[in-house]
Amino acid sequence: TQSTWGVIPIPCQSTMGLGSASDPEAVAFGWIGTVAATLLFLSPITVCRDIVKHKLIRQNSPNPYIISLLQCAFWALYAIVTPDRIQPLVTNLIGVFLQSVYICVFVRYANSAERKVLFTRVAAVFVIFIIVTLFTYLAVPHLHFKTFGGNSRQTVFLGILCIILNIIMYASPLGVMRLVIRTKSVEFMPLSLTLGTLGCSTSWALYGLWVGDINIEIPNFSGITLGLMQLALYIVYCRSKNDCDTPLLQ
Questions:
Q1: d(CA 76, CA 117)
Q2: Separation between Cα atoms, residue 52 and residue 238, nearest integer Å
Q3: pTM of the predicted structure, to 2 decimals
Q4: CA distances (Å), 173 to each of 117, 179, 193, 222, in order?
């Protein structure tokens, strides 16, 4: 008899894409997204260079890199359990590697108290990832819920988890947008980062749309929305301020 761990209602998951993952369009969107994401992953290099220069982490927080490490690890796991997701897998493995490098820089130059906290948080991320991985492979196949479009239970479970984590990550750009509105300054919202994020989200949204992967579509169309909102704020508050790194309107 088949073992059943519970009954969980799962919303319909669309897999009706414009084509398949092997189409040239999907391959192009995927690799463009990989390049765009890698460039974004490289943006903290300036922070790490500053830490190495002063041999202190000062006011820099390692938390964004720890959370990003967990996020990339989950998306890599999602790409492993979901067929034909080569570009998302490569992208997130690059992300895991680079976030690990940045965290190592923090570990190297943190004082003893900071290092202890950092080790605790990294260990927590590692434990969470191991638990989720074991649950995905050992428990999820035995859960009783309906899947759609040929998606495996692991794909559905990890897709929902990754979407939730992405939504949590949106707290950071929303906080920056509130700061821009409050200070009427775009000093802490560089145009290059906004455009880079918008371009990256657009590439992956098109990829998800083409292959019919709603788990990739949802966070990246949300990213496009946030990017356009940030761009609108940049246009509004760059007109009369001199803190714009690249004026949009003269």
A1: 26
A2: 33
A3: 0.84
A4: 25, 10, 11, 12
Considering only CA atoms, which of 11, 166, 199 is closest in space to residue 78? 166
Query: How do residues 81-116 score in pLDDT, each as one tens digit?
Result: 999 999 999 999 999 999 999 999 999 999 888 899
Q: Which tokens is 196 given? A: 């880079």
pLDDT in tens, 135-166: 999 998 888 777 666 678 899 899 999 999 88
User: For 13, phi and psi rounded to 5 degrees?
Assistant: -110, 115
CA nearest neighbour of 86 among 174, 194, 182, 211: 211
Q: Which residue type occupies 119? A: F
Beta pairing partners, 144:
7
DSSP state of 189: S
The secondary structure of residue 144, as a DSSP letter, is B
